[in-house]
Design goal:
Layout (H helix, E strand, L loop, with lengths): L12 H4 L2 H7 L1 H4 L17 E2 H14 L5 H12 L3 H14 L3 E4 L1 H4 L9 E2 L2 E2 H5 L1 E4 L1 H19 L7 E8 L8 E2 L10 H12 L13 E2 L1 E6 L1 E8 L12 H18 L4 E7 L3 E4 L16 H13 L5 E8 L5 E3 L5 E3 L6 H16 L3 E6 L4 H14 L3 E3 L5 H11 L7
Helix pairs in contact: 4-6, 9-11, 9-15, 11-15, 12-13, 13-14
Length: about 425
């Protein structure tokens, strides 16, 4: 006779644990900007070692704020039994299998190279050289998480598209009918069309409908917007005992997720400005760190304008997040002029000239200041006066709320 033996179910923490909860717990580590690294200027950009990931997961497991009580008890038992390292390896394997991280183990390509297995400082060369990167799937989730947290504090949950004061023909009806003209969306208002024909010919059968009888529904015309997000990645963004760059990166990821999911007709580009300026894909944002740079605001504005010129959108705007006044300028011969002391007349005049070009091109500039430096406030006030933009004094903790509130308010009115 076949027998079945039942025993108590013992859950496997590595299989039961939600990787999304784990990723949320690791978000500060994955998006770090160099604030915690004493030797940040010597670290290669965008690279993390596998050993660092192990330590970050261990800290997340020991803190246990993202996990339920039963899971925390299991983790404590495994730590007491000396099995925590095994759990961490299983979690890393799951993260790789489910495409949350990609791991580069150089010795796998050259397994017979003895130099990669030499012992240095008590660790093998394997552990020292293994690198990992977070994938686009992780970046998308972190953007969604940041957006949900920011909108939760605002009390909002969903949004429409760019509403304006103008009317157009379309599928969604929100206005009175109008006579059909060539080029209109043929969304016929049947009642108005028949009424027009009856008024002209009376109640006769068959009813002859002419071109002039055609009436179409009107809906609110919804515009599109091209946005360039300018992020200051100069040295001051991690100085003075405060990390200002990591919150700015989280807001950029949240804004990207918002535009992609709620405003598919919009475009968002990312520009980093420091000694010079460069456009980077949004997928690379999490890997960016600050550096020993000055603040070349003019070069950032020039690059942003070139990007916006390629976009055929109704509205164009630059969102600039910075914590310092302009302190660098690219000269005609390519050299970079730097002066971090006060408001340099040459730097300020050239930067304001670029702001004037933005105004003539119809580009809005909205500035979010992460510091209240006197020189920065003076400069931003001039930019606001020249370019019809807005300026916000904010902190790394309220930056996301102010930025998203301003972006969404632009969807409910037309900017003239």
């Amino acid at each position: 006779m076949k027998r079945i033996r039942y025993s108590k179910y013992v859950p496997d923490p590595a299989g039961e644990m939600s990787l999304e909860d784990l990723l949320s717990a690791l978000s500060d580590y994955l998006l770090q900007s160099g604030f915690q690294d004493s030797m940040w200027y010597e670290m290669p950009e965008g690279e993390h070692t596998l050993e660092e990931l192990r330590r970050a997961i261990e800290n997340a497991l020991l803190n246990g704020e993202m996990f339920d009580e039963n899971l925390r008890e299991q983790i404590e038992h495994m730590m007491a039994d000396g099995k925590l390292d095994e759990l961490i390896e299983q979690l890393i394997e799951r993260m790789q299998q489910e495409d949350y991280v990609s791991i580069d183990r150089p010795w796998e390509a050259e397994p017979h190279d003895p130099s990669r297995r030499s012992s240095v400082g008590g660790q093998t060369g394997e552990a020292q050289q293994a690198k990992f990167e977070i994938t686009d799937k992780s970046l998308d989730f972190l953007g969604f998480k940041a957006l949900r947290n920011l909108l939760g504090s605002l009390g909002k949950s969903s949004f429409g598209r760019h509403d304006t004061r103008d009317l157009a023909t379309g599928i969604e009806t929100s206005g009175s009918a109008k006579t059909y003209e060539f080029g209109d969306t043929l969304n016929l208002d049947i009642t108005a069309t028949l009424s027009s024909a009856i008024q002209r010919e009376g109640l006769t059968l068959p009813l002859n409908i002419e071109y002039s009888d055609l009436q179409v529904h009107q809906c609110e015309y919804q515009s599109s917007c091209a946005t360039v997000l300018m992020l200051d990645c100069s040295h001051s963004m991690i100085l003075y005992g405060e990390d200002r760059f990591t919150p700015a990166k989280k807001v950029a990821m949240a804004l990207s997720h918002l535009i992609r999911t709620q405003y598919p007709g919009d475009s968002l580009s990312l520009v980093l400005f420091h000694d010079s300026a460069e456009e980077i894909p949004l997928t690379q944002l999490a890997r960016v760190k600050v550096g020993p740079y000055y603040t070349n605001t003019r070069e950032g504005l020039r690059l942003a304008q070139r990007i916006l010129q390629r976009q055929r959108k109704d509205m164009k705007q630059i969102v600039m997040i910075t914590d310092g006044k302009p302190s660098a300028l690219t000269l005609e011969d390519g050299r970079i002029y730097k002066n971090a002391f006060g408001l340099d007349p040459l730097v300020v005049s050239q930067t304001l000239e670029e702001v004037s070009k933005c105004k003539r091109a119809g580009v809005l500039i909205n500035t979010f200041m992460l510091a209240s430096d006197y020189g920065l406030v003076q400069f931003v006030q001039k930019v606001t006066e020249m370019c019809r933009g807005k300026a916000y004094f904010t902190t790394p903790y309220t930056l996301g709320q102010y930025l998203l509130m301003d972006y969404m308010s632009r969807k409910t009115k037309t900017i003239h």
